[in-house]
Write a structure and sequence with these properties.
Blueprint (H helix, E strand, L loop, with lengths): L5 H10 L3 H7 E10 L6 E4 L1 H13 L5 E7 L2 E7 L5 E8 L4 E7 L2 H9 L6
Parallel strand pairs: 1-6
Antiparallel strand pairs: 1-2, 3-4, 4-5, 5-6
Length: 121
């Protein structure tokens, strides 16, 4: 991943809990669509709101780590447990800044990600 790639910049900002870096990679009018498979999902707008929701969701899984992945032909970010299980996948749209994010945490939609888990070392 190139350092100017929005997915790489998002990953670093989230890993380091760096609000300035996160603000620099998210468009002020960024949209986040959360597909959780239940009524906790939704459609959010605005950098402050999206930042808060991403932080809250990451805080639920302090043992998990973030990884750059390809989602629908684009760069994205996956949240994986130490055993390799995928807990969520972020699909990213935008070139200079991120204009839209799609977060899938629905177990049904993550099933194919978890069938191809990497071998544990």
């Amino acid at each position: 991943m190139q350092p100017h790639d929005p997915a790489a910049r998002l990953l670093v900002a989230l890993e380091q809990w760096d609000d300035l870096a996160l603000a620099s990679v998210l468009n002020p009018d960024v949209r986040l669509v959360v597909d959780s498979g239940d009524d906790t999902g939704g459609d959010l707008h605005g950098r402050a709101h999206v930042t808060r929701v991403l932080r809250e969701r990451l805080a639920r899984h302090p043992e998990a780590s973030l990884h750059i992945v390809h989602v629908n032909g684009r760069s994205g970010v996956a949240l994986r447990r130490h055993d390799g299980a995928v807990l969520g996948v972020l699909s990213i749209e935008g070139t200079e800044t991120i204009e839209a994010l799609w977060l899938s945490t629905a177990p049904r939609k993550l099933a194919h990600w978890n069938r191809r888990r990497p071998a544990l070392e």
